[in-house]
Structures are given as C-alpha cells and as structure tokens.
C-alpha cells in the first residue's frame, strides 16, 4: 500500500509546476479590511492584461481540446501591492469578468510557486485512497477565501499568484525569460489555461467525479524520475535515439509552419515515429511501477505523461499563439531548451503539428478520439502516428519530396 500511495503522489506532483519550498496550505484567518490597501494591485496593468485576455479566449476560432473551451472557469488572481509583502489582494473573475475584489487581513500562502487549486467536492468513494487524499487537500481553503467562493457559488477555482516574486519559474531567469514568453504576464496567462484544464477536465476523472468533459481513464501514472532515467537516459543508445526523434519532430513543426508541401511535413512526421519506435525497441525489457499496481513499459509510461502534461501545455500554447501572446520562434526555443521533462514538449508539439496540418473539424474529431480512448495506444503519440500514416497512404506509394 505504501508504494501505491507513493505513486498516487504523482498526482500531486502533476499539480505543482514548479514546486514550492516551505509553503503551507492556502489559508487566512482574520476579518477582511478595506479594498483601498489593494487598489494599486486591482488597477495594475498586469491584472488588467490577464482579465482582458481571459475575455478574449472566446475569440478562439476552435476550442483547443474536444468539448472543452478554456476561459469560462473561475480564477482568483492573488497578489500584493509591492514585492515581498503578504499576498492579500484577491480578484475573483469568471470568463475575465470581475465578480468581486477583496482585501484579506492575512496573506495567502501557496503550496506551489505559481498557482494552486480549489475543488469543493470530495472524491467519489470508488476513487483510490491517495486520490481521495489529494481531493481533500484541494478542499482546504478557509476563512475569507472560502466565504468569497461560497458567496459566488464557485465549486472549482484556480488560484493564480500574480506578484513579482512568482514571475520567473524553474530555470528561467529575468535575462532569458522573453526568449520563451512575450512577458511574465503572458506566461501566467498560459499557466492559467494549462492549470484550469487540469482542474476542470483531468481532476474530475482522477477523482471519479461527475464531469461535463470527457477524459481517458487509462492513466496509470508512473514515477516521473523513472520515466526520465529509464526511458530517456537508459544508456547512450537510448539517449541518442531520443535526441534523433526530438530533432525529427522539431523538423515537422518547422515545416508545417513554413507551409511547405504536405508530403515533406508528413515525411518528417514519419521519421519522428520511426525514431521513437527504435527507442521503444531498445527499451522493450524496461518496466516500472505505476498507480495501477502493475509494472508498465516506457511506451505506456510516456503516453501517460504526454497525455497528462502535453495536452494541458497544448491548450495553453494554442490559445496563446492565436491570441498573439506567443510566436512560433518562442515555441521552438522552449522545445529545444532543457527546461522540463521532455513529455511536456513532445506531447504539445505533436498536437501543434496536427492542429496546423488538419482542417479544424478533423482536429476536433482527433481530440475527441483521444479523450474517449480506451488505452495508451489511443493517446497523443498513437493519434499522431495514425494521422501521419493515414495521410501518407492518401498520397499513394512512391511519392517523392518536392
């Protein structure tokens, strides 16, 4: 049971990007004070930017994922009037419209450096015990914040930290931040869409809760460190194969953005598929524990992680690109930089290639199929491989690159 709890703990890790140090649960304890203290935060350009672009999400030409349209959910923007002060200023918004402004008497402390979640309902009794523990953790908002959420009938909300101390994440520094994002604020916007997707689509499936959205039930989560060490860096041959497949996927992304002949894009996509298959052949004997209580191979483990992290990243990227908050060069630099676990970027980049390769209706059908898939073979890579091979077959045998 201990090992099972340890791996279900990966659920919590999925919600923490990047991890915080020495943080406590979200709480505040004493009555609220005047809004005047937070007026500069409420009127700040950063808060205005986020609210404006939350409203703009409805302008997207296509819902980024199946039956899910981002931007409709409740978001709490939490910050302070100056760096280093307690996070006492709160803006509750829904679809970018302000529901209430609140100045807390005591500051909010986040469990992660950039965000946290509120989920009112407990996990279903049929959910595994560690999942129930995580659901209980997400219920732990009290005092003034809980009263605010209750006043507005909010069952789920993303809490987004909006203050200078949270502007830069992971290995990103002030000097190179704009290489990857247009600004710290645009990074927060993308984070909000990614994590709102997790809260409203993925969490209900993990907790066996009723949901208006579909999400696969085959996520047998592996330990992240095992995926990194065993599936990407198992030995020199595996590391070289992984590097080759990443280069092939990046080539497909570059070509689809140049709008070259479709056959050349598909050939690059096919090379990515073949290079990944070579790596999986090298890893055929590798197995690792999972939350299902069974050992799984690298192909399934990576499919789980590309689904769990890559899809949310794709939702954020797709919206940010269409709204003009990121460009292809920033996506490219983010992909080639060793900033995160590879499945974040390979999952999202496969979907970005497909989004530009397919008509809107076909892309929507593809995301619906992934959401309804019965096992890992129907995940992101499975859908990418099926789409590329199907499109190549339509070109006929013996086609040549132009």
Task: Write a structural description.
The chain has 402 residues and is α+β, with helices and mostly antiparallel strands. It folds into two domains: 2-13 and 34-206, no CATH class; 224-395, no CATH class. It has 15 helices and seven strands. It has helices spanning 2-14, 39-42, 45-56, 129-138, 143-151, 177-180, 184-206, 224-232, 236-258, 262-282, 298-322, 328-336, 342-357, 360-371, 380-395; strands at 74-79, 89-94, 97-103, 115-119, 156-161, 288-289, 295-296. It has a five-stranded mixed β-sheet with strand order 3-2-1-5-4. Strand 2 (89-94) and strand 3 (97-103) form a beta hairpin. Helix 8 packs across helix 11 (298-322). The chain is globular. The model is unreliable at 1-10 and 14-33 (pLDDT under 50).
Quote the average pLDDT: 85
Q: How large, in whole angstroms, is the Cα Rg?
A: 21 Å
Described by the principal axes of the CA atoms, the overall outline is globular
Strand-residue proportion: 5-15%
End-to-end Cα distance? 57 Å
SSE ordering: HHHEEEEHHEHHHHHEEHHHHH
- Tally of strands: 7
Domains (count): 2
Q: Determine the structural class based on helices, strands and strand pairing.
A: alpha+beta
- Give the neighbour order of strands across the main sheet: 3-2-1-5-4
| Share in helix | 40-55%
Tell me the number of helical segments per DSSP (H or I, 4 or more residues long). Answer: 15
Major sheet size, sense and barrel closure: 5 strands, mixed
Low-pLDDT stretches = 1-10, 14-33
């Amino acid at each position: 049971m201990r090992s099972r709890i340890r791996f279900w703990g990966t659920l919590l890790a999925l919600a923490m990007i990047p991890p915080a140090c020495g943080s406590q649960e979200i709480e505040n304890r004493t009555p609220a004070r005047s809004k005047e203290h937070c007026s500069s935060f409420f009127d700040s350009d950063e808060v205005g930017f986020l609210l404006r672009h939350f409203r703009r999400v409805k302008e997207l030409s296509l819902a980024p994922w199946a039956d899910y349209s981002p931007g409709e959910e409740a978001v709490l923007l939490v910050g302070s009037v100056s760096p280093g002060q307690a996070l006492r200023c709160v803006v509750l918004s829904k679809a970018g419209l302000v529901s209430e402004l609140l100045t807390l008497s005591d500051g909010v402390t986040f469990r992660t450096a950039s965000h946290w979640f509120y989920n009112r309902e407990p996990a279903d009794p049929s959910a595994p015990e560690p999942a129930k523990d995580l659901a209980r953790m997400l219920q732990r908002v009290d005092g003034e914040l809980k009263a605010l959420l209750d006043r507005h009938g909010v069952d789920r909300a993303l809490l987004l930290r909006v203050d200078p101390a949270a502007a830069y994440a992971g290995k990103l520094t002030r000097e190179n931040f704009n290489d990857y994002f247009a600004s710290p604020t645009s990074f927060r916007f993308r984070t909000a869409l990614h994590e709102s997707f997790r809260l409203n689509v993925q969490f209900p499936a993990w907790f066996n809760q009723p949901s208006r959205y579909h999400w696969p039930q085959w996520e047998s989560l592996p330990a992240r460190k095992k995926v990194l060490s065993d599936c990407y860096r198992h030995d020199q041959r595996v590391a070289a194969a992984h590097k080759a497949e990443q280069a092939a996927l990046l080539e497909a992304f570059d070509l689809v953005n140049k709008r070259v002949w479709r056959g050349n894009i598909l050939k690059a996509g096919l090379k990515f598929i073949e290079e990944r298959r070579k790596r999986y052949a090298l890893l055929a004997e590798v197995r690792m524990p999972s939350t299902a209580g069974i050992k799984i191979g690298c192909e399934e483990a990576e499919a789980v992680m590309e689904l769990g992290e890559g899809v949310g990243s794709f939702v954020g990227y797709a919206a940010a690109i269409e709204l003009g908050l990121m460009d292809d060069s920033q996506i490219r630099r983010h992909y080639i930089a060793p900033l995160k676990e590879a499945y974040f970027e390979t999952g999202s980049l496969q979907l970005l290639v497909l989004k530009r390769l397919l008509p809107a209706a076909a892309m929507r059908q593809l995301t619906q199929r992934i959401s309804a898939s019965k096992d890992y073979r129907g995940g992101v890579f499975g859908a990418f491989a099926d789409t590329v091979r199907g499109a190549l077959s339509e070109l006929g045998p013996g086609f040549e690159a132009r």
